[in-house]
Automatic annotation (TrEMBL):
Species annotation: Delphinapterus leucas
Gene: REEP1
One Gene Ontology term, aspect cellular component: endoplasmic reticulum membrane
Gene Ontology BP terms: endoplasmic reticulum tubular network organization
Name this polypeptide is given: Receptor expression-enhancing protein
GO-annotated molecular function: microtubule binding; olfactory receptor binding
InterPro entries on file: TB2_DP1_HVA22
Annotated transmembrane regions: 6-27, 39-64
Region (Disordered) location: 159-192
Length: 228
């Protein structure tokens, strides 16, 4: 773990940041010799980074793997060994020079195919998006029309219910009918009680008035009978 951290720091500082600053100085001073030197280094470092991606997975178990990486970066940068210039002149430049035409043709074909694939998938994506938008719009319009139709039907039913006359016939049987039957005796009982109380009051008054009248007529009848 410690060796991995040290190797990453060495590659980051001495393998990337320091060469980047030196390349800036070479471009600023317009020194062709330094410019070519750092251009060769960046080509070798790009190949090293590509190889490092796979070696970190498959060769990390190798003893002194990270120490060898640190030593390799130092060898590339050292002005005494000039490792990057040596690797470029001995291996990279001859290989690229012999395969340059094939590499250029492959790059052109890959560029054309990638452009055609991008256009094809772009058209398909636009067609799918347009179809989805049309379907969503049609579904939304249908749902809106159904919603408005339901609101209009509710309004019509409300208007008809308010303007329709009350039914004159007997109510159909149902739970409300049953509740009406159960509630009818209570209403008739209360009505009869109120009616009975009024009749009883009237009869009492009538009887009192008739009894008083009879009492007044009794002496008259007695007097008449006695005179006869």
């Amino acid at each position: 773990m410690v060796a991995w951290i040290i190797s990453r720091l060495v590659v980051l500082i001495f393998g990337t940041l320091y060469p980047a600053y030196s390349s800036y100085k070479a471009v600023k001073s317009k020194d062709i010799k330094e410019y070519v030197k750092w251009m060769m280094y960046w080509i070798i470092f790009a190949l090293f980074t590509t190889a490092e991606t796979f070696t970190d997975i498959f060769l990390c178990w190798f003893p002194f793997y990270y120490e060898l990486k640190i030593a390799f970066v130092a060898w590339l940068l050292s002005p005494y060994t000039k490792g990057s210039s040596l690797l470029y002149r001995k291996f990279v430049h001859p290989t690229l020079s012999s395969k340059e035409k094939e590499i250029d043709d492959c790059l052109v074909q890959a560029k054309d195919r990638s452009y055609d694939a991008l256009v094809h998938f772009g058209k398909r994506g636009l067609n799918v998006a347009a179809t989805a938008a049309v379907m969503a719009a049609s579904k939304g319009q249908g749902a809106l029309s159904e919603r408005l139709r339901s609101f209009s039907m509710q309004d019509l039913s409300t208007i008809r219910g308010d303007g329709a006359p009350a039914p004159s016939g007997p109510a159909p049987p149902g739970p409300g009918r049953a509740s009406g039957k159960h509630g009818q005796p209570k209403m008739s009982r209360s009505a009869s009680e109120s009616a009975g109380s009024s009749v009883c009051t009237c009869c009492f008054t009538c009887r009192t008035w008739k009894d008083g009248r009879a009492l007044l007529q009794m002496p008259l009848l007695t007097f008449v009978n006695g005179s006869h």
